[in-house]
Design goal:
Radius of gyration: 29 Å
Distance between the termini: 50 Å
Largest sheet: none
C-alpha cells in the first residue's frame, strides 16, 4: 500500500510527537500554541522566522521544512496565475496550470478552490454540463466546510449559466443561495454582494417581478455607491432606468439613463456608452419624444456597425422603425424593418422583435390581416425563447386589433393564449414572492 506523502503541517506534527512535545512546549515563548495548531493543520504557512524557531526546537535541518514552504508558495502562485488567465478568458493557457495542481501528490490548495477554477475552465471551453455539475459539487462542499465565499462564487457562476440558457427559476434560486452564503461569511467581499444582488434583480425582472427586481437593484446601487467601482455604478444606473420605465416613472428613468451615459463617457467605455445611448433613445420614444429619439439613432447604428455587433445593430434598426412609425414616416420605417430582419438570426430575440415591429407597421398602414399573422409569428417566437413578457405584450396588440374590429378573428383564441402566458408569468412571480430571503446582517 502506497503511503500518502506528508504535508508541511503533517511533518511538523510528526516531528513534534516523535520528540514527545506538546504544542505548547513547541511554541515556547515566542510562538502561540494556536499558531502551532494552525500550522500543523496546514491552515497557515509559517514565516521564515517561525520556521527557524521550529527547526531549533525540533533539532532538524531548516531545509527539510523550507522545501515544503516553497512547494506551498509555488502551488498558491499556480492557482493565482490560472485564475488570472481565466479572468482574461484564456482557458487553454490556464489548463496546464490547473492540471499540474490536480496531479500534485501533496496539495496545499483545497479541493473546493481547485474545482471552482476547473469548473470555470469547463465553462470557458464550452463544456457547460460538466461545468454545471462541478459548480454544484463545489457549492455543496463549500457548505459542509463553511467556505462561504467560494460557495457564493460557485453559485453565482452556476446561476449565470442558467440565466444565459433561459432557466430563470433555477438561476433565481442559485443567486438567492449565493446571497445566503455571503450572509454567513464574517468578511464578505463587497463586490460579491453587489454582483449577487444585481444578478437577482435581472432574474426577478425576467420572472416578471418588477417590484422585487427594483428592490434588489436599489440595494445593489446602495452597495455600489459606498464600495463599488464607477463601472458598477453605471451598470446599476442603466438597469434602474429600464425598471423605472416599467414602473411608468419616466423622469426617474431619464435621470438614471443620463447618469449612466455620463459615467461611461468619462471612463471611455465605448461599447457600454453606445448601449446607454440606445437605452436613452428607447426611453425618449416611450415617453412620447420619438423625434428626439430618432435623431440619436443614425450615430448609434454607425457605432454598432463599426463595433461589429450585428445583434445590437438589428435592434437599433427595429427601434428606429418604431420611432418612424410613431411620427408616421412609414416608408422609412419599412426600410428600417427590412434591415433589422436581414441582420437578425432566424431563431433569435432580435428576429422576434423585428417581426413585432413589422406587425406594428403593417397595422399602422391598415394591412390588418398580414399584421395579425406577423404579430402571431412574433408572439410564438417570443414564447419559444421564454420571453413571455414580450409574448404577452404582442398578444395584447392582437387582442386590441380584434376589439377595434381591425381584424375579424376569434377573440376567444387570443384571450386563451394571453391567459396561458399570464399564468406562466404568475407562476414565475409566485416563485420570487414565496421565497424567504436569508436574515439580513449589516454587511448584506
Amino acid at each position: 500500500m502506497t503511503k500518502t506523502p506528508m504535508t508541511l503541517g503533517g511533518k511538523i506534527r510528526a516531528l513534534r510527537l516523535a520528540k514527545g512535545m506538546t504544542q505548547g512546549e513547541l511554541a515556547g515563548r515566542e510562538i502561540t500554541p494556536g499558531l502551532i495548531s494552525q500550522i500543523e493543520s496546514d491552515r497557515v504557512a509559517p514565516s521564515e522566522r517561525v520556521v527557524n524557531l521550529l527547526t531549533k526546537a525540533l533539532d532538524v535541518n531548516p531545509s527539510e521544512l523550507l522545501s515544503e514552504i516553497e512547494l506551498r508558495h509555488r502551488q498558491t502562485q499556480l492557482l493565482r496565475d490560472a485564475r488570472d488567465l481565466l479572468d482574461r478568458s484564456a482557458p487553454h493557457a490556464a489548463k496546464p496550470l490547473l492540471d499540474l495542481l490536480a496531479q500534485a501528490s501533496i496539495s496545499y490548495v483545497t479541493k473546493t478552490e481547485l474545482d471552482l477554477e476547473i469548473a470555470r475552465l469547463y465553462e470557458q471551453l464550452g463544456m457547460f454540463p460538466e461545468a454545471e455539475t462541478l459548480y454544484e459539487r463545489v457549492s455543496a462542499r463549500a457548505l459542509v466546510h463553511h467556505e462561504w465565499m467560494i460557495g457564493a462564487s460557485s453559485l453565482n457562476r452556476q446561476g449565470e449559466l442558467h440565466l444565459a440558457n433561459g432557466r430563470y427559476i433555477l438561476a433565481y434560486h442559485c443567486f438567492l443561495q449565493a446571497l445566503w452564503y455571503l450572509d454567513q461569511s464574517t468578511q464578505p467581499i463587497p463586490q460579491a454582494v453587489f454582483t449577487t444582488r444585481k444578478n437577482l434583480s435581472i432574474t426577478a425582472y425576467r420572472l416578471g417581478n418588477t417590484d422585487q427586481s427594483f428592490d434588489f437593484a436599489r440595494s445593489a446601487f446602495s452597495d455600489v455607491k459606498t464600495s463599488g467601482s464607477r463601472v458598477d455604478c453605471a451598470e446599476l444606473c442603466h438597469l434602474l432606468s429600464v425598471l423605472s420605465m416599467e414602473n411608468k416613472s419616466g423622469e426617474e428613468a431619464l435621470a438614471y439613463a443620463r447618469e449612466a451615459i455620463s459615467i461611461y463617457s468619462s471612463l471611455g467605455q465605448t461599447y457600454a456608452l453606445t448601449d446607454a445611448y440606445m437605452n436613452l433613445a428607447i426611453i425618449q420614444r416611450e415617453r412620447g419624444y420619438s423625434q428626439e429619439a430618432v435623431s440619436l439613432l443614425p450615430q448609434l447604428i454607425t457605432d454598432y456597425h463599426k463595433q461589429g455587433r450585428m445583434d445590437a445593430l438589428s435592434n437599433a434598426w427595429s427601434e428606429r422603425a418604431q420611432c418612424e412609425i410613431s411620427i408616421a414616416q412609414y416608408e422609412d420605417a419599412a426600410r428600417s424593418v427590412e434591415r433589422a430582419l436581414a441582420l437578425s438570426k432566424e431563431e433569435s430575440p432580435e428576429r422576434a422583435e423585428a417581426l413585432r415591429v413589422q406587425g406594428l407597421l403593417l397595422r399602422a398602414t391598415a394591412q390588418y390581416d398580414v399584421a395579425f399573422l406577423t404579430l402571431k409569428n412574433a408572439a410564438a417566437r417570443f414564447e419559444a425563447l421564454q420571453l413571455l413578457n414580450s409574448a404577452v405584450a404582442t398578444l395584447e396588440v392582437m387582442k386590441d386589433m380584434i376589439l377595434r374590429q381591425e381584424k375579424a378573428d376569434d377573440l376567444f383564441v387570443v384571450d386563451e393564449l394571453i391567459a396561458r402566458f399570464s399564468l406562466i408569468l404568475k407562476q414565475r412571480l409566485r416563485v420570487t414572492e414565496m421565497t424567504v430571503l436569508p436574515p439580513e446582517k449589516k454587511h448584506v
